Amino acid sequence: MSRENVEIVRRIYDAWGREQYPGPLEFMDRDIEYVNPAGAVEPGTRRGLPAFTRAVEKLFESWEFWRGEPEQFRAVGDHVVVVVQYRARGRGSGVEVEGRESALWTLRDGKAIRYEWFHGPTDALEAVGLSEQDV
Fold first, then answer.
1. Is the pLDDT of residue 43 over 90?
2. Residue 41's closest CA among 66, 69, 22, 68?
3. What are the residues whose beta carbons fall under 8 Å from the beta carbon of 92, sequence distance 6 or more?
4. d(CA 21, CA 27)
């Protein structure tokens, strides 16, 4: 199942790379959760596919563009940890930023039921009890 979960998450990121949001609906549970970390513009959890879609689309209210390239996928039980290299440009300021962040996807029965992103590239690993040395 781990390999299948990684493939599902890859397909979601592939869709996002083609600017298809929220991603392939056949891989998303209708009650999916979208979790913004503390320190995000709008921290907290959104529930349900409509709320997930709004959260993803809201990203582009502040950013003229935001591109994320997954660098690493790691299956850990029902979770997939993803490390992402991103580049973005502020909509109003034109300021460009780049960095690395991570995400933790939780899957059940072939569908994503939770997406939680983190500011740091190792934070998602730590959330499942691993460290960078465990990779």
1. no
2. 66
3. none
4. 13
Question: Which residue has 């994320």 as its token pair?
Answer: 68
Could you read off the pLDDT of 84-105 as tens digits, one per residue?
Answer: 999 999 988 999 999 999 999 9
What's the mean pLDDT in 106-132? Answer: 93
Q: How far apart are CA 121 and CA 100, in angstroms?
A: 5
**Amino acid, single-letter form, for residue 120:** G
Listed as own residue / partner, the contacts of 122-131 with beta carbons closer than 8 Å and 24 or more positions apart are 123/37, 124/81, 124/82, 124/83, 125/74, 125/81, 128/76, 128/77, 128/79, 128/81, 128/104, 130/76, 130/81
Round the average pLDDT of the chain to a whole number and report it.
92
Q: Could you give the 3-state DSSP secondary structure of residue 1?
A: coil
User: CB of 128 within 8 A of CB of 81?
Assistant: yes
- pTM beyond 0.85, yes or no: yes
